[in-house]
Specification:
disordered N terminus, about 220 residues, alpha+beta, 12 strands
Amino acid sequence: MGLAGEAHGRLAVRVVTKTLSIIEGASELVVVQRKELVELFGFETRNKYAIESNGVPLAFAAEQGKSGLDLLARYFVGHWRTFEIHFFDTARNLVFRAVHPFRFFFQRLEVTAADGRPIGAIQQRFAILSKRFDVLDRNGSELLRVSSALWRPWTFVFERNGNEVARIEKKWSGVLMEAFTDADRFRISMRPELELEERILLLAAAVFVDLQYFEAKAS
C-alpha cells in the first residue's frame, strides 16, 4: 500500500509538472467561465473555469464550498464575500489556490502553491475613471502594475517599468451567453520573459478580473 501510494504521488507530481511547464512556455492562454443551465434563470452557482492552451484543456478552476451559507453569500454579498478558488490540472491534481478575504474596498486575491507556499497576490488600488490593481510577489513587492482605461473597459494591460509584458482581454462570448448569463471568456497574452510564478499570478488575475468587474454584483 505504501509503495502504491508513493507511485501515485510521483505520477501526480509529473502531471502537475507537465501542466506547469505548458503554462511556463505558453505565449497565450484562454480562461473560459463555465455556466450551468440554472444560471439562465438568474440563479448564481459556484464559479467554474476551464483554462485552455491552443484550444486544448490544460487546467480547471472552481470555487470551493457547497453549503447554504455559501449560496446566500454569493447571492447577497457578491464579489465582496470570502471565497477560495482551486486550480486543478486535467487529472484533478491541485496546482495552486487563490483566497479572497472579505472586504468592501480594495479587493485582494492571495495566491499559494498546492503545498501552501505563498506565490503572491492581486491587490486592487484606488483609481479614477479606470480600473487598477497590482500584481505583488510573495513579499508584497510590486511585480506588475495593471490598468484598464475608461475607453478600453475589456482590456487590462500589465506593465513593468512602463513596458507592457502581458495583457488580459475579455472576449465576446456570443449573443445568447452575453444576454442571459454573465459567462465570460478571457485571453491572456504573455511575453516570454515572464517567470512561472508571474504566469500563475496572471491566471489568478484573470479570475480576479471576472469576479471583480464582470460578475453580477450583490443585490
